[in-house]
Backbone:
């Protein structure tokens, strides 16, 4: 039975937490990804390209995220031509998208008490694209595995823990953090370190810090049956 669920390479952890009013729950980065069929992977890893075979190292997480490892190394996997690259609008996601992240959103990212010293965080996603292989191509990759990798895949399938990357969501991320007056250099460093660890961005510190990084999300299928119905991203854990 297919279990397609979405996995995101962690930079997307920052993809927006703005709310339209105090009566609405804060939108979390993970919920933004789930809206377009993706969830997050921890820690961030952009090497999970469409077609690679992976296993879930943490079953279950219980929070909709997964931690993945490679069954077969990408450099030893034969990738056929025909990788589809399309704009994210095919998912109903704007090609450019901006978010404002408040203290609650920062806490959702694990920033903790230091979030109280942040005045605002603005994020922008640009150049959003979706990368995807057809089911036929995914089968070609599996059929072309060498004997060692095929053996590892067989054992992972026996443990119901073998998946293949079907598609990826990729976007450039830029952000700007404004700290409140009185925020010490240690607090600023703690916030920027946490943001960098969750979204893979490089930041320049100070009262106003700016950084750039990558948003990268994945969808997986069960490597034993990539043609079965999809499983909701929220069920991934």
Residues:
């Amino acid at each position: 039975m297919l279990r397609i669920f979405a996995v995101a390479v962690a930079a997307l952890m920052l993809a927006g937490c703005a709310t339209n009013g105090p009566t609405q729950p804060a939108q979390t980065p993970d919920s933004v990804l789930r809206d377009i069929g993706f969830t997050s992977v921890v820690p961030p890893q952009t090497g999970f390209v469409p077609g690679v075979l992976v296993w879930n190292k943490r079953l279950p997480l219980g929070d909709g995220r997964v931690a993945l490892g490679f069954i077969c190394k990408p450099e030893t996997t034969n990738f056929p031509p025909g990788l589809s690259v399309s704009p994210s609008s095919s998912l109903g996601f704007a090609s450019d998208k901006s978010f404002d992240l408040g203290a609650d959103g920062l806490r959702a990212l694990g920033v903790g008490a230091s979030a109280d010293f942040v005045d605002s965080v603005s994020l922008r996603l640009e150049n959003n694209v979706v990368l995807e292989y057809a089911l036929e191509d995914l089968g070609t990759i599996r059929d072309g595995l060498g004997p060692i990798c095929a053996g590892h895949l067989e054992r992972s399938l026996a443990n119901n823990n073998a998946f293949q990357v079907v598609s990826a969501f990729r976007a450039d991320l830029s952000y700007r953090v404004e700290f409140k007056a009185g925020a010490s250099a240690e607090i600023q460093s703690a916030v920027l370190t946490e943001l960098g660890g969750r979204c893979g961005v490089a930041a320049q510190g100070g009262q106003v810090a700016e950084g750039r990084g990558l948003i990268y999300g994945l969808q997986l299928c069960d490597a034993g049956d990539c043609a079965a119905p999809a499983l909701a991203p929220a069920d991934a854990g």
Observations:
- Strands lie at 5-9, 53-56, 68-70, 84-87, 97-101, 118-132, 163-179, 202-204, 208-222.
- The chain is about 20% helix and 30% strand.
- The two ends are 17 Å apart (CA to CA).
